[in-house]
Design brief:
With about 200 residues, the chain is of the alpha/beta class. It is built from seven helices and four strands; from the N terminus they run αββααββαααα. The chain has a domain of about 130 residues: Collagenase (Catalytic Domain), CATH 3.40.390. Helix 2 crosses helix 3 and helix 3 packs across helix 5.
C-alpha cells in the first residue's frame, strides 16, 4: 500500500509540477533561439517560418482528407510538435504528448508532414492517457498498422507507407512518441523516410 501511495505521489509531482516546469523551460528556450509557434486548438507546432507554413497547409489538407483525425489532433489532448534539427531523433525521450518531425519527413513536403501527423493522431487515440510499461508494444503495433493502412488507402508514396512497417521493432517499454520506424539504436537503418532525391 505504501508503494502505491509513493507511486501516486510521483505521478502527481510529475504531472502537476515537473511537466509544467519542463514545458515552460522548453517554451523559453525555443523563443530564445528564435523558434516560432503556431497553435491550432490544442495542437502547438514549433519550428522555423517555412516549417510552420508547411505544417499549416498540411493540417488544412489533413482536415479535407480525414476530419476525424484532424479533430483528434486539434481537439483531443494537448500535444506539442517540434521541428527536429538534422540528425536529431527524440526516440523514447519525453512525455507521450511531445513529438518531433525529422528532416526526412519535411523533405517530402506536405505528404511527409501528413504521414507524421496521422501517426501522432493514431498514437493519441490509442494512448489517451499515456502508456503503461508492458502493454504498449501491442498497441503501438496497432498504431503502425493503422497509419500504414491510412496512407495506403489514400495513395501516399510507397516510401512513406514503408516508414510504418507491419512488424515494428519498437521496444515494448518505449512510449509511442519515438517515430515512425524503430527506436534509435534498435536498427541499422535511419528512422523516417529516405530523403527526396
Amino acid at each position: 500500500m505504501n508503494k502505491l501511495r509513493s507511486c501516486l505521489l510521483y505521478r502527481l509531482l510529475g504531472a502537476y509540477v515537473l511537466c509544467p516546469l519542463w514545458l515552460l523551460a522548453f517554451g523559453l528556450a525555443a523563443r530564445a533561439r528564435g523558434v516560432r509557434r503556431v497553435r491550432v486548438g490544442k495542437l502547438s507546432v514549433w519550428g522555423d517560418a517555412g516549417f510552420l507554413g508547411l505544417c499549416r497547409s498540411s493540417m488544412e489538407r489533413l482536415e479535407r482528407l480525414d476530419s476525424g483525425l484532424h479533430r483528434v489532433l486539434t481537439q483531443g489532448q494537448w500535444v506539442r510538435i517540434f521541428q527536429a534539427p538534422k540528425d536529431y531523433y527524440i526516440g523514447g525521450l519525453g512525455p507521450p504528448w511531445l513529438f518531433s518531425v525529422e528532416p526526412p519527413y519535411v523533405a517530402w513536403q506536405s505528404d511527409g508532414i501528413i504521414a507524421r501527423l496521422i501517426y501522432i493522431a493514431f498514437c493519441m487515440a490509442e494512448f489517451p492517457r499515456g502508456h503503461k510499461p508492458g502493454e504498449s508494444a501491442g498497441r503501438h503495433k496497432s498504431v503502425m498498422k493503422q497509419a500504414r493502412s491510412w496512407l495506403a488507402t489514400r495513395g501516399f508514396p510507397e516510401v512513406l507507407i514503408e516508414c510504418y512497417p507491419e512488424h515494428s521493432g519498437a521496444q515494448p517499454s518505449a512510449p509511442p512518441n519515438g517515430g515512425a520506424a524503430t527506436q534509435l539504436g534498435n536498427s541499422a537503418e535511419r528512422e523516417g523516410p529516405p530523403s527526396v532525391s
